[in-house]
Automatic annotation (TrEMBL):
Annotated organism of origin: Actinoallomurus acaciae
Superkingdom of source: Bacteria
Protein name (Swiss-Prot/TrEMBL): Arylamine N-acetyltransferase
InterPro entries given in the database record: Arylamine_N-AcTrfase (IPR001447), Papain-like_cys_pep_sf (IPR038765)
Gene3D superfamilies: Arylamine N-acetyltransferase (3.30.2140.10), Cysteine proteinases (2.40.128.150)
Family, as annotated: Belongs to the arylamine N-acetyltransferase family.
Secretion signal, residue range per the UniProt entry: none
A Pfam family assignment: Acetyltransf_2
Length: 264
C-alpha cells in the first residue's frame, strides 16, 4: 500500500490534533515506539552493506512495516517517521550518532541514523529507531535535566560533540550515544567511510541479534539472550537460558504471538 498519512496515524492510534506542535510530536513519538519494534535480524546477510537502503522506498517500507506489522532498523523506522512529520508540516532533518559500546567507547559517528526538528527556537532529538534504553519522547538539546517515565536525560557537550546521557532510579548517569550538531545527507551512508565499513564487518561477524519494543512506561531490549527491562526508571537484566522462553520473548517483542502484560 502506498504511504498514507491517515492510515499511519490510525496505526499509531493517534486521534488528536496532527498539527506541527511539541504536544503532537510527543504523542506520535511515544506511540511510534510502542507500536513498531526494532529488529536487527533484518540486517542478517547484508554484510557490510548495513546502510545500503538508508534512503528508503517510502511506499515499500510503509507497506511492510505500518501495514504488514514487521519490525524495522533505525533508518527504516526513523525514515518513515521523518516522512510522516514532514507531511504534517514539521521541519525535520537527519543526524548521525555513535552508540556507546559495552566497554564505554563509542561507535562511528554514522553508526546510527535518527532525526531532529526545531520547535519554538529549540532543537529536539527525534528517535523512534533506537532499541534503547533511551528517551520515549523527543529530547531537547540542553544540559538541563529532562524527566521521562522515571528516567532523567540531559545532553552534554563533549569535545565538539553532544552526548545524550540517561539516569534511571539508580542515579548513575550513562551515555546513550553521541552526535554532532551537523545535519547529514543520506548519501554519506551510501558511500561509507573505511571506519564505518570496518565497524559493519565487526558487527556482522558477531552475529548477535537485537530486538526491542517500548511499552507505556519503559522498554524491553533483547540482545542475544540477555533481556534488559526498564520500567519507570527501574532496570532488571536476565539471561534467557531456556530456548522456549527465548522464543516466547522474541515473539512478544515482535508481536508474532499474543503480547505479554507490561513487565515489572
Amino acid at each position: 500500500m502506498p504511504f498514507d498519512v491517515d492510515t499511519y496515524l490510525k496505526a499509531l492510534g493517534h486521534r488528536g490534533p496532527a498539527d506541527p506542535t511539541l504536544k503532537t510530536l510527543r504523542s506520535l513519538h511515544h506511540r511510534h515506539l510502542t507500536t513498531f519494534p526494532y529488529d536487527s535480524a533484518l540486517n542478517a546477510g547484508r554484510g557490510t552493506a548495513l546502510w545500503a537502503g538508508v534512503d528508503i522506498d517510502r511506499d515499500a517500507a510503509f507497506d511492510e512495516i505500518v501495514i504488514g506489522g514487521r519490525g524495522g532498523v533505525c533508518y527504516e523506522l526513523n525514515g518513515l517517521f521523518r516522512i510522516l512529520l514532514e507531511e504534517l508540516g514539521f521541519e525535520v532533518g537527519v543526524f548521525g550518532a555513535g552508540i556507546r559500546q559495552l566497554d564505554g567507547s563509542f561507535g562511528p559517528d554514522l553508526e546510527h541514523v535518527f532525526n531532529h526538528t526545531r520547535l519554538d527556537g529549540a532543537l529536539f532529538l527525534v528517535d523512534v529507531g533506537f532499541v534503547g534504553p533511551s528517551y520515549l519522547e523527543p529530547l531537547c538539546v540542553t544540559t538541563e535535566v529532562q524527566r521521562q517515565y522515571g528516567n532523567r536525560f540531559r545532553v552534554v557537550p563533549v569535545d565538539g560533540r553532544h552526548v545524550v546521557e540517561r539516569s534511571g532510579r539508580s542515579g548513575i548517569w550513562q551515555a546513550v550515544y553521541r552526535f554532532r550538531d551537523q545535519p547529514r545527507d543520506l548519501a554519506e551512508w551510501q558511500e561509507p567511510s573505511a571506519e564505518l565499513a570496518d565497524f559493519a564487518r565487526a558487527l556482522a561477524g558477531a552475529g548477535i541479534l537485537v530486538r526491542g519494543r517500548s511499552f507505556g512506561t519503559g522498554q524491553r531490549v533483547l540482545i542475544g539472550k540477555r533481556l534488559l527491562t526498564v520500567d519507570d526508571g527501574h532496570e532488571s537484566v536476565r539471561v534467557l537460558t531456556d530456548p522456549a522462553e527465548h522464543e516466547r520473548v522474541v515473539a512478544e517483542i515482535l508481536r508474532t504471538a499474543a503480547p505479554a502484560e507490561s513487565p515489572r
